[in-house]
Design goal:
The protein has 13 helices and six strands. The chain is α+β, with helices and mostly antiparallel strands and 348 residues long. The protein folds into three domains: 118 residues, no CATH class; 112 residues, no CATH class; 95 residues, no CATH class. It has a four-stranded antiparallel beta sheet with strand order 3-4-6-5. Strands 1-2 form a two-stranded antiparallel sheet. Helix 4 packs across helix 5. The N and C termini lie far apart (50 Å). Bound molecules: zinc ion. The site of zinc ion has 4 residues, from loops.
Length: 348
């Protein structure tokens, strides 16, 4: 009953809010009409690519994304038992409205969760998924073995090392030793699980675990230890260097599946085996756009600050944004469920 009152109260607030904003934005209108006009484009989680443009486009575009948050704030207000419920007529029209109201509530709740994930990326949240306790020992040995592979082949080479090559290095070097069956099972589990279950809503950009990167297609960027794909990525990076100058550095380029495994397992260990928390700071293996062309930039001598939101205050970032055409993959209001990453340049 309490929940029913809560939903009705919220419905009333939402409908009021939607009505109020109808003149200012199309959001309320779209939401209210989504059932009536099923074929029209309605407000939904913005497509990931559009989200990437949000920070450098108009505030109006951002408003579309943010609108449902305001609605949810209303829901978050403490509900008092004495709250008076608006008189809702019981004819068929209102039934329809109630159905649409449920949609609005569900959508607003999802939107609120998304904002919570992005803003509190480094905290343990209610719906987070954790690695089973009985898998943690294997996880640790897997993580350290991948680390030994990196040490053996070298930091630069490891960036473009394929999954099969990683396993082979284990077989060939006593300093690494073969990956165990349990470790291989865990590698499969990490790659093939649906990242949305962890609260990560990016697309799977590398479908094959064993995808390899052809050396003919890449260039090594001197002094960085990283590679870029020939073509769009290399051209864009060179262009940015020529505009911004020496202060701009490449902090991460192409990442093979093996490399993403290493970064991801590190994140998971650091997040105390909270898979969701790790996934808010790093795409799970198979989901990283670094595999297909995106890259990270930083300001010279900024160290680890290049991987915090502080980077948005750097001269390099400001100069990049002033160009007008740079797209940030994980904007402050992104719908991937990922932290704000002003350093991550979207290429693809
Ligand atoms: Zn990145």
């Amino acid at each position: 009953m309490t929940q029913d009152i809560s939903r009705r109260k919220f419905l009333y607030q939402v409908l009021t809010a939607a009505g109020m904003c109808a003149g200012g934005t199309a959001v309320g209108w779209h939401l209210l009409h989504r059932n009536r006009y099923p074929n029209m484009t309605v407000v939904k989680l913005p497509d990931p690519l559009a989200a990437g443009r949000a920070s450098i486009e108009t505030k109006a575009a951002m408003a579309v994304v943010e609108e449902p948050v305001a609605m949810v704030d209303a829901e978050a207000a403490p509900l008092e038992e004495t709250v008076s419920i608006p008189n809702v007529p019981v004819d068929s029209h209102v039934s329809e409205t109630e159905i649409r109201g449920s949609d609005i509530i569900a959508e607003a709740e999802e939107e609120a969760k998304m904002r919570e994930r992005v803003l509190h990326f480094n905290e343990d949240l209610n719906d987070d998924v954790w690695l089973d306790e009985n898998q943690r020992k294997i996880f640790d040995s897997l993580h350290t073995r991948i680390g030994r592979v990196q040490k053996t082949v070298g930091y630069g080479n490891f960036n473009i090392l394929s999954f099969d090559e990683m396993l082979k290095v284990g077989d060939r070097y006593v300093s690494v030793e073969s990956f165990t069956k349990a470790e291989k099972n865990l590698l499969d589990e990490l790659f093939f699980r649906n990242a949305q279950d962890l609260g990560f809503f990016g697309e799977k950009v590398t479908a094959s675990q064993t995808a390899s990167i052809k050396s003919d297609n890449v260039v090594k960027v001197p002094g960085s230890g990283h590679y870029l794909y020939k073509g769009d990525s290399e051209k864009l990076f060179n262009k940015l260097c020529s505009i911004v100058g020496d202060d701009l550095i490449l902090t991460s380029g192409i990442r093979s599946v093996a490399k993403q495994y290493h970064l991801y397992t590190s994140k998971v260990v650091n997040a105390n085996y909270n898979l969701s928390r790790a996934s808010r700071s790093l795409a799970p293996p198979g989901y990283s756009y670094h595999a297909i062309g995106d890259f990270d930039v930083g300001q010279r001598n900024w160290g680890l600050k290049n991987f915090t939101s502080d980077f948005a205050d750097s001269d390099v970032f400001k100069e990049l944004i002033s160009l007008g055409y740079i797209r940030i993959r994980y904007t402050i209001d992104n719908n991937f469920g990922v932290r704000f990453e002003p350093w991550h340049i979207r290429v693809v």
